[in-house]
Amino acid sequence: MNVYLYNTALGLYLASTLVYAVSLASNRPRFERPGYYLLAAAFVVHFASTVARFFEAGYTPITNIYESLSFLALCIAGFFIYIRKTYRVEMVGSIIAPLVSLVVIMSLGFPSEIRPLIPALRSAWLPVHTVLSFLGNGIFVVGFFISILYLLIEKEIKRKRSFLFSDRFPSLETLDRINYRCMSLGFPFLTAGIITGSIWAGFAWGSYWRWDPKETWSLITWIVYAILFHNRLALGWRGRRTAYMMIIGFLLVLFTFLGVNFLLKSLHAYV
Amino acid sequence: MKKQAIGILGLNHNTAPLNVREKLYIKEGSIPVLLRMLREEGVPESVIVSTCNRTEIYFSGEDSEEMMEKVRRVLSRAFTAPDDWFTAYMYGLSGEEAFRHLFLVASGLDSMVIGEPEILGQVKDAYRIAASERSTGFFLNKTFHKTFNVAKRIRTETRIGYNPLSISSMAVELAKRIFGTLDKKRILVIGAGEMCEVALKYFQKQGVSDILITNRTYGKAQKLAGEIIGKARPFETLFDLIVDVDMVLASTGSEEPLIDPARLQAVMKKRKNRPIFFIDIAVPRDVDPAVNDMDNVYLYDIDDLKDLSQKHLSDRVRESEKAQVIIDDEAARFSEWLRKVDVNPLISHIMARAEEIRSKEMKRALGRMGVSDDETVNNIDTMTRALMNKLVHPYLALLKENGDPAVFDTLKKLFQFEDNDEEDMDSGDKGL
To answer: What ipTM was assigned to the predicted interfaces of this complex?
Structure first.
């Protein structure tokens, strides 16, 4: 059931991507809405697939690369739907839809069968720690792309020649606000993810903090976002600088998520 | 019966110099009179479009050559102008060329500033006046409705009117790229020139909430503040004013830049780096160009805006080629439709059908009554004829006056009129 729903969700994500692509290529804003609705429908089906997998497996399905990528994609799509509600930025979906499709397709490259949960993960902390961490990661992914978009549009306006991106995408001020929203929501989730992870480690590994690569890089990421958060609130950093920081922060998230697993030896080797 | 044709006699900015255009300009108030003169001359349908760049008379009648002569006669009677003006400066087109020209005009392709949108409104007004004067009938109604359709299609399918050309509208456009909506934004004006007034009207239309005006001569600031709804502020507080606004429009006669990066840096700190947009239309410049390199500061000076305007104009020229393709396509289809749709056969059919029913029913009634004296027969004949005419008349009137193909189709079905063409105009015609 979960696989069937998952494939349906992917189909809808791809359909949304296609509609958005048509909208961009033909320069017809009236395709933005259908593109968005397809994306929202995909999210609902994707969510149902995750719930189905939860019941079929008997545990929170964020225990391997396949499940994690799926859940990450779900968080990205969900957060986009959330910001769309406030900012009416349908067109940002033209980045989110292909991105989510790509993450889902990537997940299909990893083993997907449901296996009995390994003892180390049998804990009430599993859903708490993973859901919080991935919500944070998903939000930072959106922040990363919003920041790139911001920099592109800022450059266009400063260069005064062509307005390829700013013709179709939201204004600088809107993007900056979304960026702030990403930061102010992503940071608490990241913090909570690290704290719950540490508590869980205390139970499972006997020590709250042992400078495992995953822990170390999470901390580095956290410090970067903390600096960004401070600078924005205390020093009034805005626009370009915060966009750069969001990009650096995301690259660290990416490294902590994937790099540590594949490149460094870590106890945290499930995902 | 000869087929109706559409024609045009007119002049525009390409064919006539300004003094001729001025002379032959027709004020809105005088249009009804001229329309009446045209009807009295025997031109059944006409629409007069007159703007500062063109005066054009669209007409429809059975013989376009003859109609054109009639229009020319009316014009030379109505205007005290040399007679050769009506041939030397005017162009006459008929048939497909005529409505093709109308499509071009309404879409802004024949305008001096290519793609400008005002002309469509002017053509619509011209049509409305003619329609309310009952100077339009089936053909011009249809032609103008089609025209509005084509103009709309060109607006949505090409970017002909997309990029603004005027300094003011470009400034608004750029501000929107930075701020999104200009609703509740604040703008500061430095200097109180006439240029500012025009630009400010644009910004006001976008919902800018506060307009602050400052000028070395405080009185001038107060005067401009009175003319538009704004607030005058002393010039000495310039940098304090910049702290609280989102946009600055500068146009003073100052020899030296008033705003430099160093002092602006301090202001940006006080603003907590909220973005600020400078529009510097002064020569020499009021804002040091280096401020554009500062974070969250955007500066466009008069040369930037002029370059952008040039670029937008060339974009429009490129888009006008796409528009031409649409017009070719629509003109071909409209011409095909005109060839097929001819109300006369349908009118004769309706009359014949009504007459058939009338004579059959009358004969039957007479047979039943068993009367045969001429007077009674005549009376019944007159009565039924009057009845028939009164019943049929509204249909025929609708058919003659209304250019809507839906009416044509409904009546065709209602009276079971079969002709060889079942193909009709595309459904897109309905959204006028």
So the answer is: 0.88
